[in-house]
Amino acid sequence: MMESTNQKAYAKVTDNGTQAVQEVQNLHSSGYTQEHIFVLAHDSDRTERIASASDASEVGMKEEGAFDTIANLFRSRGDELRAKIQSLGFTEAEADFYEKQLDQGKVLVIAKKDE
User: Fold this and answer.
1) d(Cα 115, Cα 109) in Å, to the nearest integer?
2) Which residues form the General stress protein 17M-like domain (predicted)?
3) Which residue among 28, 45, 56, 63 has its CA within the 20 to 30 Å range from the CA of 18?
């Protein structure tokens, strides 16, 4: 399982929603607050269900900036996910890697540190 810990954010690829919820709970207990934890899955309904079950956030307007959020309306789900991952401080290559994992049905949990 690939984990990335750069200065700005931590990411973990999990196999399913249950694991994602456990990871979010681990992050909560290590001091991250809800607004710093994000859950991404290829299917947006699934992302919402996991986010609400685990008390994590979905990446929204604030993180991406209004321009990026509007731009996302014109992207496919894959592009949108890559943009969200990059907006949380990851490189294009990392975003590509994670998006491919999501394509295979994995769930990505990201914790963003305060700048």
Assistant:
1) 19
2) 12-105
3) 63
DSSP run (H or E) holding 21: helix 17-29
Specify the residue for token string 């769930």. Answer: 107
Q: In whole angstroms, what is the distance from residue 93 CA to residue 115 CA?
A: 22
Q: Determine the pLDDT at residue 1.
A: 46
Q: Using the structure block, give the residue that is written with the tokens 């986010």.
A: 51
pLDDT in tens, 59-96: 776 766 665 656 556 667 889 899 999 999 999 999 99
Cα(42)–Cα(78) distance, integer angstroms: 8
Query: Model-level pTM?
Result: 0.79
Please give the structure tokens belonging to residue 67: 């321009």
Distance CA 25, CA 64 (A): 24
The Cα–Cα gap between 33 and 114 comes to 10
Q: Which residue has the tokens 């929603």?
A: 17
Asked if 89 and 98 touch (Cβ cutoff 8 Å), the reply is: no
